[in-house]
Amino acid sequence: MLNTSGFGWNDVHQCVTVEAPDILEEYLKCNFQTCTIIPEYTHPPKPLQKPFHPFQSKTTFSMDLSLTSSPNLHFSRTKTLPFSPRFYKHLPYFTNFTYNKPKTYSTKSLITGYCPIRAQSLNQNNTPSDDDDDDDGFVLEDVPHLTNYLPDLPTYPNPLEYSQAYAIVKNTFVSPEDVLAYQIVVQKGSPRGVHFRRAGPREKVYFKPEEVRACIVTCGGLCPGINTVIREIVCGLNSMYGVNKILGIEGGYRGFYSRNTMELSPKIVNDIHKRGGTILQTSRGGHDTNKIVDNIQDRGINQVYIIGGDGTQKGAAAIYKEVEKRRLHVAVAGIPKTIDNDIAVIDKSFGFDTAVEEAQRAINAAHVEVESVENGVGIVKLMGRYSGFIAMFATLASRDVDCCLIPESPFYLEGQGGLFEFVQQRLKENGHVVIVLAEGAGQDYLSGSVNATEEKDASGNRLLLDIGLWLTQKIKDHFTTVKGVAVNLKYIDPTYMIRAVPSNASDNIYCTLLAQSAIHGAMAGYTGFTVGPVNSRHAYIPIGRVTEATNVVKLTDRMWARLLASTNQPTFLNKHE
Ligand SMILES: Nc1ncnc2c1ncn2[C@@H]1O[C@H](COP(=O)(O)OP(=O)(O)OP(=O)(O)O)[C@@H](O)[C@H]1O
Ligand SMILES: O=P(O)(O)OC[C@H]1O[C@](O)(CO)[C@@H](O)[C@@H]1O
Ligand SMILES: [Mg+2]
């Protein structure tokens, strides 16, 4: 819940705020076996101010549904759980909590709804401290481990210990105690908050390298860098752990049961990072958990590397759950992929930098075109289904953009403060204007103005209406018919060209770290996890944590304000149409 949309902190009343009851309901379903809701007081709506974790208060906190007329919620805590990285990671947070007025919620599994764990540091004897008072608000959101359901699994020394490459590394192995703080901006006295397990090689591994049979699958849309991740999983498994049985599953999830596999070796993948796309091919839809896990079993696969976006990670969670149900010695590792940068918790998704860089070329072209003609209006459409990160960062990087439209910030065309007025003003001042828009921008506005049927892709994602073509036509019509001015309109849609390029240098390095983190995690027996950087250090994150919310541009954050300050575009906050 920390830092997820819909929750905040009210400084004045020192309470948690939530935008709507259903957001809270969802959270409770994920995290609470039972709980009490005590009506307390209401107060007028107040904007959300800062993220929080509900367990930061040592005794009691109140939760105010400040944007609704609903009553406050109040939870009483009676006990904290001791922290031992290996033994406590699966305990539902609320095992030791009691509540006054019974209201029962089903607890989602750890994977589909992550369970934060209240924790204390180990004492010097490596045992949890008994002292409940030693409570500094530390929460570990841990990932599952194979020993949770296969307690007698043997361990083996990590082959990296004998690796020449790692011979002079000071700390070859990550300490089991190492965790990463989710929030790094803190104040004196504030609770330590949520942490994730640090990624990296562990001293003991839970697979004999010669017995590893790994597979890699890529699902969802393309993104620069997928081939690099595939390459680095293959090369990393081989060079660091001596694994040489690696299968490529072709064509996404459905490939497990409907396509042939491809043997992957360092030689086969040697050059693939120089190509866009995925050598394994990808698809949407076709996730059949039972068929997939049957196939994993039939092929004797014991490490599954799944590269894909939010939908794919939900699929990975379902596979992990089934694997756990069947008590298989199979590690399931997710590597988050999305060009939209819409995956929660992680700093940034791979391929995003490349996409922003590539978008510059389209914006430059639009700018060159429109400054070379009279009344030039350039429109560049970029990807971003629900999150306008590519558009926002490409705009900030370019300085040639007059206006950036993203899904998170509704806009309107007519009247005071509208887009037409702004375009007219810029044409008057500069003779040209460049508009960048994310494909998901203005969808509600657009669907109200055209006869749209709601279509979905094979994965169930809503198919978007073409805002670029629509806006182009609207601007043309407005200026020629209403204003009697002929505008020179240039519409550029580079979306698939951006997505299809190979990753740039920094994304290549990033992809390598992701692949290696995933390998180390799987070899160390972690499973049901996603890897990714949290405040620049790589972490193992419970899959449910990255799928429960979408990362979107927060209009109340400074980055959007920086954009508005740089373009001086309208905020579209006051609609007069
Ligand atoms: N809730 C879910 N449970 C199981 N599988 C899912 C779920 N949602 C999506 N999938 C499967 O995950 C795969 C990819 O999903 P989707 O097409 O939504 O792309 P994605 O992974 O979100 O990537 P992107 O949106 O970045 O292109 C599909 O094969 C789809 O069937
Ligand atoms: O046309 P496709 O391949 O389904 O993908 C389009 C979608 O994929 C994404 O690139 C990632 O979700 C979106 O930005 C875009 O809407
Ligand atoms: Mg998606």
Automatic annotation (TrEMBL):
Protein name stated in the entry: Uncharacterized protein
Domain of life: Eukaryota
